[in-house]
TrEMBL record:
PROSITE patterns per the UniProt record, alphabetical: HD (PS51831)
Catalytically driven reaction(s): P(1),P(4)-bis(5'-adenosyl) tetraphosphate + H2O = 2 ADP + 2 H(+)
Enzyme Commission code: 3.6.1.41
Single Gene Ontology MF annotation: bis(5'-nucleosyl)-tetraphosphatase (symmetrical) activity
CDD domains with a match to the protein in the record: HDc (cd00077)
Broad enzyme group: hydrolase
Keywords of this entry: Hydrolase, Iron, Metal-binding, Nucleotide-binding
Pfam families: HD
Domain HD stretches: 17-132
Tagged with keyword Iron: yes
Record bears the keyword Nucleotide-binding: yes
Protein known as: bis(5'-nucleosyl)-tetraphosphatase (symmetrical)
Length: 188
């Protein structure tokens, strides 16, 4: 990451979102070092993961359409979910990131998915447990993240699904598929 890239990021993120992104970046770096992923890629993906989060829903839909990003029915109803795939496109186009692993980690950080690589899993979990996050159960997730990555990921998926169910919100199919794939992997 360059100073220029960081300065550019400060123009598109609120101070609070920028602080969250720093927290995700640092947490992802720690997890990458622990679980054998590339620390630099984890740090970069964590920092840029929300680079499209400041876009309003209508703009996310427009950018997704203009970029050829396929939008499913859940994303049409919950366009903010598109900040992840749109963010991957923006990280490439506006921040000059050409590493497919970093772009994939940005792409999957919100919903998760069935075929996530180690870096994807690390950024997904780091987004959950970075130091500024505060919700019931986050301390337990942080403990699990330090002990067993798949178990921590499963707990994060479960937490997400419980929250969405309690609020009677739509569930992205990639989240269900990701949890199922992880559960089968753990049980095998």
């Amino acid at each position: 990451m360059t100073d220029k890239m960081f300065a550019q990021l400060t123009k598109v993120l609120s101070p609070k979102r920028l602080e969250h992104s720093r927290g995700v970046s640092e947490t992802a770096a720690v997890l990458a070092a622990k679980y054998g992923a590339d620390v630099g890629k984890a740090r970069l993906a964590g920092l840029l993961h929300d680079c499209a989060r400041g876009m309003p829903s209508n703009i996310l839909l427009q950018v997704a359409a203009a970029s050829g990003i396929v939008v499913n029915d859940v994303e049409k109803r919950e366009p903010m979910l598109l900040h992840a795939p749109v963010g991957a496109m923006i990280a490439s186009r506006d921040f000059g990131v050409d590493d497919p692993e970093v772009l994939a980690a940005i792409r999957w950080h919100t919903t998760g998915g069935p075929s996530m690589a180690l870096l994807d899993e690390i950024v997904f979990l780091a987004d959950y447990i970075e130091p500024a996050r505060s919700f019931p159960g986050v301390d337990r997730l942080r403990e699990l993240a330090g002990e067993d990555l798949p178990v921590a990921l499963l707990a994060a998926y479960d937490q997400t699904l419980s929250h969405l169910l309690a609020e009677r919100r739509l569930i992205h199919p990639a989240t269900v598929e990701g949890r199922n794939a992880l559960l089968m992997k753990i049980k095998n």
